[in-house]
Amino acid sequence: MTLAYSGGSPANDTGFNDAEFDALLQTARGSSDAEERLTAIGNAQAVLQERGGVIIPAFANTPEGISTQLAGYVPGTIAIGSIRAAENVWFK
Fold first, then answer.
1. 75, 64 in Cβ contact below 8 A?
2. C-alpha dist (Å) from residue 39 to 21, 42, 46, 86
3. What does the pLDDT look like over 47-85, one tens digit per residue?
4. How far apart are alpha carbons 86 and 62 in whole angstroms?
5. Which residues neighbour 6 within 8 Å (Cβ) at sequence distance 6 or greater?
6. Are the CB atoms for 33 and 42 separated by under 8 Å?
7. Model-level pTM?
């Protein structure tokens, strides 16, 4: 979120600039307390959802199924575009 949405980021394509959001990101990135980080990132996500400048109209649904008859299965080992696929899988 820092790269894509923080006010000073050159990769912020939407131009979203929100002081509260940026402060929450700083807290989330700088705290050594896990609960404080979790709370801060959750609050930052809420700010982004409520006031952010991006619309994501759809998400790809990529189901992956396996069988007990397969061997060598390691999920998502080869990048194919934006999807990952299994490699070196065989039937027992």
1. yes
2. 13, 5, 11, 35
3. 999 999 888 777 776 666 778 888 887 766 666 666 666
4. 13
5. 12, 21, 22, 25
6. no
7. 0.61
